[in-house]
Amino acid sequence: MRTPRRRPTRPAAVATAALASALLIAGCSSGGAGEAGAEQTAAAPAREVLLQPAGAQGPDAFTPSTAQEGAPARPGSAPEGVTGSPVPAAREVTGATPGLYAGTRSVASCNVAQQVALLTAEPARTRAFAEAAGIPEANVTGWLRGLTPVLLRSDTRVTDHGYRDGRATAFQSVLQAGTAVLVDQYGTPRVRCACGNPLRAPAAGPGAVHTGRPWPGYAPDRVVAITPTGGVVTGLVIANLADNTWLERKTGSDGDQDRRPEVLPPCDPASCDPATAPAAPLPDGQAPRSPAEPRTPAQPQAPSSPPSSDSGPRTSAPAPDTTVPAPDAPRPDVPAPDVPTPDLPMPDAPHDLPPDFPSAEPPPSFEELFPNDPAARQPETFEG
Q1: CA distance linking residue 249 with residue 106, whole number of Å
Q2: Measuring CA to CA, which residue among 209, 200, 204, 101 is closest to residue 158?
Q3: What value, to the nearest 5°, has the Cα angle with vertex 248 and ends 243 and 250?
Q4: Is the pLDDT of residue 9 over 50?
Q5: What is the mean pLDDT of the segment spanning 211-238?
Q6: Residue 28: partners with Cβ closer than 8 Å, 6 or more residues away
Q7: How large is the average pLDDT for residues 168-191?
Q8: 211 has which bridge partners?
Q9: According to the model, what pLDDT value does residue 288 have?
Q10: Is residue 258 within 8 Å of 248, Cβ to Cβ?
C-alpha cells in the first residue's frame, strides 16, 4: 500500500499566518470599528500632551482650516522648560459656565458649511471622522450643522484626532485660548476649526509630559477641562470681544441670533476667568444677576393665571399686598383693663316669637279658618 505524500507547506502561507497572529496579539485587528473603537483609542493612557497654538493646524489634519475668527494671544513671555515637564491635572469646568467661550456679535468663528463640504467629500475621511466623534456616519452633516462656532477663552485640555492612512489617530492636546471650535448642545468642544479634527473629553494619563512649543502666557496650572452639562442648553453666554460685554448665542446658530442675555453674570467678561473662578448658579437654579440689578427678597406671589394663547416670554409680577394688619395682641405681662358690662334690658316674651305670630295665643284651627269646607269632614283614609 502506498503511503499518501504530504504536501509541502508554502512559505507564503506560513508568513501570512504568523503576521495575522502577531496583529491579533498586538491588538491591531480591524474588528470593533465605530464608536467603541474611538472610545478605546481616546481612553488610552496619555504619554505626551501636545501644545497647539490657536493658529497652528497641527499634525495629520482632517481638513484645511475653516476658522474665520481668532482671539489675540495672551500677553507675557513664553515659559521656559515646559517641554518634557509633567502635565498637572486640569481644572474641570462645566460647558454652561458664562464666559467660558468668546466671540463677536453676528460673526461665526468657523465656516460650518465649508467644514461640512470638506468632511463629506471623501467617504473614507467621513467614516474616520464619524468613528472618532462617536456619531453615525450618515449623520455627520446634520450633526455638524447643529454645532455652535465660538472661541476658547482658556487653554483647554482635549483628546484630539488626526487623520492618517484612512484612519483617525487619537492624541492628547492642550488648545490655546483663542482657538476656534464648534461646541455641541452640552457645551463641550467637538471640532477644532483650524484642522477639522474631532475633539473628545481628555483622557487621564498620570505621568504624561508636555510636548511642543508653549505660547506666551501659558501656565500649566490654569488649563481647564470642559465637562458636559447635565441637560441640553439652548444658549451660551459668551464674552463679546468687540466691546467687553456679554452675548447670548443660540446653540446651533452662526451668530445671526446673538442678543443681550436676560440675566447677566455677576461680573464683566474681563474679570470673569473660568480658569480660576467659574460662575456657579445660585441655589434656586437661576443665574446670578448683574451688579446693577441686585436681587431682592422673595415677595408673595398671587395664584398663577391660566396661560394665554400667545407664545412670547412669560413674566409673573408680584401680587399687591392686600393683607390687613392684625390688631395689637395683648402683652402677657400686662393685665387687661376692667371694662364694665352694661345692663341691657331683657326683651318681652312676645318679642321672642316669630314675626308670623305677633301674640302668644295658639294658632286657629282648620275648622275655624274654613267652617263651610266639606273636605274638612272627610275621613283621612279611603278605600281604593
Answers
A1: 9
A2: 200
A3: 135
A4: no
A5: 95
A6: none
A7: 97
A8: 50
A9: 35
A10: yes
Q: What is the dihedral of CA 211, 212, 218, 220, to 10 degrees?
A: -10
Residue entry with cell 308670623: 356
Between the CA of residue 166 and those of 60, 104, 125, 334, what are the distances in Å?
11, 36, 6, 94
pLDDT digits (tens, 9 = 90+) for 47-68: 899 999 998 999 999 999 999 9
Phi, psi (degrees; rounded to nearest 5) at 163? -120, 115
Q: pLDDT tens-digit profile of 322-350?
A: 444 444 544 445 455 555 555 555 555 44
Percentages helix, strand, coil for the chain (3-state, rounded to 5) are: 15, 20, 65
Q: What is the largest CA-CA distance in the chain?
A: 151
- CA end-to-end span of the chain, whole Å? 130
DSSP per-residue letters across 250-288: ETT--STT-B--SS--SS-TTT--TTT-PPPPPTTSPPP
Query: Tens of pLDDT along 144-166?
Result: 999 999 999 999 999 999 999 99
Residue 252, all three cell numbers: 446651533
Q: Please, are residues 17 and 23 in contact by the beta-carbon 8 Å criterion? A: no
